[in-house]
Amino acid sequence: MAKKSISSVELAALVNELQFIIRGKVSQIYHQENEEFVLQLHAPGQGKQLLKIVPGKFLCLTDAKDVPLRPSGFCMQLRKYLSHASINDMYQQESERIVIFELEKLTTFFLIVELFSKGNIILTDKDYMIITVLDRQIWKDRTVKPGEKYLFPTPGINWKKLTENKLVSILHNSDKKNLATTLATEIGLGGVYAEELCRRSGVDKDLLPTQVSPTMAQELLKELTTMIKQIKKPQGFIYAEQVTPFPLLNEIPLHKTKTYNKAISTLNPFNIVSPYDKKIKALERTIAEQQQSIHELETKMSLSKQKGELIYEKYMPLQKLLEIVKELKKNKDWNEIALELKKEKKIKAVDLKHKKIIIDL
With the C-alpha atoms ordered 144, 150, 155, 158, is the resulting torsion angle positive or negative? Predict the structure, then answer.
């Protein structure tokens, strides 16, 4: 499994699934190898739970913990402030790869987990003043270190609240090479879910963003709404290269799990993959994509054949209809032609804008 981190969509699914820990308590904190942290929690009605946090990668429930002989200084500080603290809330920062735990122990604290870039874990007071931090970082627009006020990174587009007008505006102002890239980067869905959205909506992922019509945008937004509903109650679908919270269209998972947390817990972000394995995986992906393309072409061929056979079967009445339209065009405009054609029972609609006639065969 090459997957080592999660997207914004996947984080939203995990956070939805972890809502049961709210009103629970932090009973212990462990700092394991490779900057992995485990929060030992007591969840209402669920008992002891182990929440693994890997900054810059992911977080999920786990079944195992390693207890180091000597906890790190950062771990000791977290224990000092958060041991036996109550969890008042847990949420994703808009649609960013940031999780916020609101905790209370005499006063309010925020434990902020950043899952983008190299990642970080920050503990702040109720006013977001930083108490302690896993890694001190200086960015162009913010400084993350004790004594500084924590500032969230400049937010991107919140796909959870995307409107049709906003989507059309983004697409028509995008300079990306295709629709999928725009959805992945400018909307923030990531590559997997950008392509999945295109497949579900039937909109060509290779279209230029500026070529997307309002009707196509409506279909994209409709399917995005469906995906958002699916991640409210996610499950785990494990593929060769991906672990998703809902099934991918036209793809068969290798395994399924009852919860998405369980599926994510199978990831090993520190596993080193040899160049040969990478090459094999790349070839496997190419083969899978080619097989998918063949399947889609065969489906289109079958449908086109059926259409051709039907047209051949109905050739005479269709030819007669064409002759009628040609005759009417000599003396009437299209509005008058539409009125005449609608008298025919088999004609379901006349599209004046595109000059098309829809017939029930």
Answer: positive
